[in-house]
Amino acid sequence: MKNNLYIYNALNRKKEKFEPINPPFVGMYVCGPTVYGDSHLGHARPAITFDLVFRYLKHLGYKVRYVRNITDVGHLVNDADEGEDKIAKKAKLEQVEPMEIVQKYTNSYHKNMEQLNTLRPSIEPHASAHIIEQAEMAKKILENGFAYEVNGSVYFDVAKYSKKYNYGKLSGRILDDLQSNTRELEGQSEKKNPFDFALWKKAMPEHIMRWPSEWSIGFPGWHLECSVMSTKYLGDKFDIHGGGLDLQFPHHECEIAQSKAANGYDSVKYWMHNNLITLDGQKMSKSLGNFIMLDEMFSGDHELLEQAYSPQVVKFFMLQAHYRNPLDFSNKALKAAQKGLERLMNGISALDKIKPAKNSSFDVNIIKNKSYEALNDDLNTPILIAHLFDGIKKINSVIAGTETINENDLSELKALYNIMFFEILGLTNDSESSSSNGKLDDVMNLLLNLRTDAKKNKDFETSDKIRDKLNEIGITVKDKKDGFEWEIKQL
Ligand code: ZN
Questions:
Q1: Distance CA 161, CA 192 (A)
Q2: For 234-248, 328-342, 435-449, 475-489, which range has the lowest pLDDT when averaged over its residues?
Q3: Mean pLDDT, residues 153-171 taken together
Q4: What percentage of the chain exceeds 90 in pLDDT?
Q5: Ligand 1 centre from 249 Cα, in Å?
Q6: Ligand 1 centre from 241 Cα, in Å?
Q7: What spacing in Å lies between the alpha carbon of 437 and ligand 1's midpoint?
Q8: 218, pLDDT greater than 50
Q9: Buried b / exposed e along 370-399 (16+ C-beta atoms within 10 A)
Q10: I want to staple 191 with a disulfide (CB 3.0 to 4.6 A). Which of 74, 196, 333, 435 is the partner?
Q11: How many whole angstroms from 48 Cα to the centroid of ligand 1?
């Protein structure tokens, strides 16, 4: 499979040519959500970033297996291996079973991801369904001498690992600095060093999510699930591991250490991270009150929002920044994105109105080549979008009569916008709920074509009935010379 794609490999801190281990197959693992609450803006960026990677690799002809996990056990309130499980804490609060929490917020995550028109992963494994494999990996690390057991818990021995391997190679952190910077927290005394991390934790009596193991009744450490589930579904060595930049340390660093300690090698060829989101220049946090849920974003129901922003606007806004750059949300920037998206969509619809000329006054291939060049340069969507806007300028000039395009170039241009806008960027031409409204268009066309047929056959009873019934449910139909128009009546 030929491609000119370069992606930034965080492991080597440079752009590298994308060469999958076993083409045409590509394995991609992305850290998914811990499902203990509704999804916020921070969930959207990795989903959109790796949806783009997934879509583009498929477009290039690869057979991509995209695995994104659901963390439903082992992610503790305090990342230093102490405190309650986030899921169990929420379950107690809502007085339901932990797995009800998992189901509820997995459903809500899926709903939001669908609104954003991201494709579903090929496999979506749950950490709680892979406890045995996680215990097995912990045992292997223990047997290889890179972990130790204390009071029924098993910890990864970072200092010992560092004697043989390079702990910190992904994040660039140095063990000596970690040593002086890691605070000794209460209850951590059973660890040899504060930066050691849990592979297995003995469950305290109040800890309700628990499984038997040879060390204790307990639960696996958070970092283990991704090492286990990625290789279970993608093989010992696979192509891409992705996630948010906030997961680079300690989560991904620990994943690398676990794989090396268990198997002697890192399983991942390319590590990719999307950068984070700020709001009006500030980090999103519950304490600052600027934590915006996706549902709030789409409804406008948040004191910081001046209006609602549709899923497609939010998505377009994110794609207007390169995934490795930080992205600041503000009403001003979102409104600009909304206008930009409208302009782009109007231009794309205008393509259908163009009457081709004999000759073209500009070269469609230049727009096409530049678009691919942008994608091949580490998925540079802001540059791609800039080229798409340039194309729209040309389209508008054709409509204004200052440029011309021939039939062949026109169909090339239509195909290009279809590929770039809909297929690869995964945008839709609808600002509300994409999938259901897209279907509504189809249904309406079907119904109104039947009505046109009825009129042609002088069956006015049927044609009027269709129009009147639609009117009753709030859809107005206007007959035009060359067809029809319909719209949903605004209440
Ligand atoms: Zn992970």
A1: 13
A2: 435-449
A3: 94
A4: 73
A5: 11
A6: 9
A7: 34
A8: yes
A9: bbbebbbbbbbbebbbebbeebbebbeebe
A10: 196
A11: 17
